[in-house]
Amino acid sequence: GATLGVMGGGQLGRMFVHEAQRMGYATAVLDPDPDSPAGHVSHHHIPAGYADVDGLARLAGLADAITTEFENVPAPSLQHLAVARPVSPGAAAVAIAQDRIREKAHFTRCGVSCAPHAVLQEAADLANVDEDLLPGILKTARLGYDGKGQQRVRTRDELAAAWQAAGGVACVLEKMLPLDFECSVIVARGRDGLMVHLPPQRNLHRDGILAVTEVHEYSMPADVAEQATAAARSIAEGLEYVGVLCVEFFVLMGGTLVVNEMAPRPHNSGHWSMDASDVSQFELQVRTLAGLPLTQPRQHSPAIMLNLLGDLWFPDGDTPREPPWADVLALPGVHLHLYGKAEARRGRKMGHLNVTGADIDAVRGTADFAAALLGLAIPLSE
Ligand code: ATP
Ligand code: MG
Ligand code: MG
């Protein structure tokens, strides 16, 4: 049988591996961590760095096609692998997604508006920043996630200090926008250019980290959902993308849609699809990678996803305890996913809980109940 390879052994790689195995594939994971969540469950685990030539050669030797589970995989490594094997998404698309400056240029090229922003490459650029961009958020162009690498600034002095604190690396300053809510869309595009998508997801972040995703008929106005879907599809089309792509959006007070960023892989906000859609985002990843046909996924239940961060393991003090899973699992329509991480840490993504049910009232009731049992912050929605 065929073997599918993945760069990265985190939870996204693990869920990809599970899905690939369900569909009859063997798997190979490349991750320097000998103890990674995906490495544990994969047929093959290559404990090598992402730019290690021997490791890459071993991966290409084992796998018939290769994907990635995190956007910061070195693009040259993907390029290198692509000489030997089909790699999706490709190095060019990943290189754009891992650099906010190039990413915003791509969005603009596709006719999708992003937040007003300035590019800061060197100290001299600070003086040219338009006053209108303040207050704003300074984001490093590369390597940020979960709000890391971001600083809120109100004045030019704060901006200069923040840019210094970021180490003077390339950054973008984004105007702070008045958000009504946030949403994201997952699209999958095959090598033949055929594209399908999951319904738009409404996302609630806490402290820069995704906390709750809701997907149901009342989660956002229909015109916003349509616009976001069309924008995500044109962004993927413009990249000639192959694989699963997630595009995050802001919806401003007043209803204007603004694109935030994209991830060249399955996304935390798409985890609901594992239990409430006939095709999950990981199955889409397997299908695009293996060159299997894509069919439009059908959501068969309203869904609420609760992220389970390591904080839940520390309800009182520094001694971790296992959250009360049995109590939560006594509720109907609760689906628990844990990532097999050895150690709980505050802010660390340990798992998620999907709630499904006959209608959104039932789902919301169950989700509220589960949140209360776990000690998650309530309310679950804005
Ligand atoms: P991720 O883990 O999703 O990759 P990230 O570190 O790349 O996160 P962003 O998505 O850029 O960060 O921002 C994190 C959150 O901060 C957003 O989801 C939003 O809640 C808030 N935020 C970011 N930019 C703005 C903005 N220009 N105006 C208002 N809020 C913003
Ligand atoms: Mg990001
Ligand atoms: Mg984000």
Automatic annotation (TrEMBL):
Domain ATP-grasp: 104-290
Keyword vocabulary terms for this entry: ATP-binding, Ligase, Nucleotide-binding, Purine biosynthesis
Catalyses which reaction(s): 5-amino-1-(5-phospho-beta-D-ribosyl)imidazole + hydrogencarbonate + ATP = 5-carboxyamino-1-(5-phospho-D-ribosyl)imidazole + ADP + phosphate + 2 H(+)
Listed Pfam families: ATP-grasp (PF02222), PurK_C (PF17769), RS_preATP-grasp-like (PF22660)
InterPro entries to which the protein is assigned, alphabetical: ATP-grasp, ATP-grasp_carboxylate-amine, ATP_grasp_subdomain_1, PreATP-grasp_dom_sf, PurK, PurK_C, PurT/PurK_preATP-grasp, Rudment_hybrid_motif
Residues given in the record as ATP binding sites: 100, 139, 144-150, 174-177, 182, 205, 260-261
Entry's EC annotation: 6.3.4.18
GO MF assignments: 5-(carboxyamino)imidazole ribonucleotide synthase activity
Superkingdom of this protein's organism: Bacteria
Keyword Glycosyltransferase: no
Pathway named in the protein's UniProt entry: Purine metabolism; IMP biosynthesis via de novo pathway; 5-amino-1-(5-phospho-D-ribosyl)imidazole-4-carboxylate from 5-amino-1-(5-phospho-D-ribosyl)imidazole (N5-CAIR route): step 1/2
HAMAP family linked to this entry: PurK
Protein family (similarity comment): Belongs to the PurK/PurT family.
Subunit structure comment from the entry: Homodimer.
Function: Catalyzes the ATP-dependent conversion of 5-aminoimidazole ribonucleotide (AIR) and HCO(3)- to N5-carboxyaminoimidazole ribonucleotide (N5-CAIR). Catalyzes the ATP-dependent conversion of 5-aminoimidazole ribonucleotide (AIR) and HCO(3)(-) to N5-carboxyaminoimidazole ribonucleotide (N5-CAIR).
Protein name per UniProt: N5-carboxyaminoimidazole ribonucleotide synthase
